[in-house]
Amino acid sequence: MNPHLAQLQPYPFQRLRGLLAGAQPPADLRHVNLSIGEPKHPAPDVVKTALTGSLEGLSAYPATLGSEALRTACAGWLARRYGVAVDAAREVLPVNGSREALFAFVQTVIDASGPERPVVISPNPFYQIYEGAALLAGAEPFYVNCTAAHRFQPDWKAVPESVWQRTRLVFVCSPGNPTGAVMRLEDWQTLFALSDRYGFVIASDECYSEIYFDAPPLGGLEAASRLGRGFERLVMFTSLSKRSNVPGMRSGFVAGDAALLEKFLLYRTYHGSAMSPVFQAASVAAWNDESHVSANRALYAAKFDAVTGQVASVLDVCRPEAGFYLWARVPDGDDAAFARALFEAEHVTVLPGSFLARDAHGTNPGRGYVRLALVAPLEECIEAAYRIVRFVSRITNPST
């Protein structure tokens, strides 16, 4: 067996099941699950129509490179969304969702055969695929804490020189999971300067980029273009799952450094990870349509407008810059105990923030927070907020 498998930690939702085991919530309250970031809005008609109209694609083997029509649609979306010009033939590669691609990309980039163990840097809290991909590639994960004091952005100054010298890949997530924080141009400029100095690759996870409330979030390729750079050592990852409410399609793409994508394509050819022609056709329709994306944003905005103020009346929380999570500080700092007690009292499930982070540099930056995914219908989110307010009011003011 691969010895690195023993290093993998339980997934957050496995830990959550263990935390809630044996708990007995009120039978008269229906369950509201705010723990899993799975889009629940209906898939758009434009995608369903394209799917049913392309079923003949089931009879053909797909190309790993994807169809020219899909790569052109992806490149066109990048141009419209970010004002970035990419070569659809060399700088775009369709993938089966960002999760699969993030994992596979690390296996392509990391060379663990040298005398020193390579380092993969991850924000902390983080999407656990970053850690698992690094470990299974033979690399050492290094966690950079993201706290309120730094706008929930990684504190790059906290990384020792000796770590930078071994760093081969840096993950960033903007908008961030779980905080919704967005990287600014000066954040990108700092990271690009570090990449130039130490030669590491930047993997920019941007799967929440289309769920925002004010200004569209800045993307990695857009930042490079604004700063007059090319895409050297930079690859961005995006997906239709959140943007278009089609997580079951497992459709996304990566874009950026052509030399890196050439090697990534080679890896994927052997990996057997080509996208179905049926889903490719549906993806073309999705990337070429923005009306359903605007409607999707409006649904999330309505939920945040209805819920944030309620929750903020009892917990330290504010509306994020983007994404569909609320990152709320709990009263007594014990996020796991809070999550279990809330479930037992109100039949509402939230995810403890410490489950999304690692103890690093003397602290777990997720401890004391819970993540609320506002993916349920509006009425359920409002009901959950009401119950959270009731629960927190009861535990903080037991005499009332």
Automatic annotation (TrEMBL):
Gene3D superfamilies: Aspartate Aminotransferase, domain 1 (3.90.1150.10), Type I PLP-dependent aspartate aminotransferase-like (Major domain) (3.40.640.10). InterPro entries: Aminotransferase_I/II_large, DapC_beta/gammaproteobac, LL-DAP_aminotransferase, PyrdxlP-dep_Trfase, PyrdxlP-dep_Trfase_major, PyrdxlP-dep_Trfase_small. GO terms for molecular function: pyridoxal phosphate binding; succinyldiaminopimelate transaminase activity. Its cofactor is pyridoxal 5'-phosphate. Keywords: Aminotransferase, Transferase. The keyword RNA-binding does not apply. It holds the Pfam family Aminotran_1_2. Residues 32-367 form the Aminotransferase class I/classII large domain. The keyword Transferase applies. It comes from the Bacteria. One of its GO terms (biological process) is lysine biosynthetic process via diaminopimelate. This is Putative 8-amino-7-oxononanoate synthase. The lineage of its organism: Bacteria, Pseudomonadati, Pseudomonadota, Betaproteobacteria, Neisseriales.
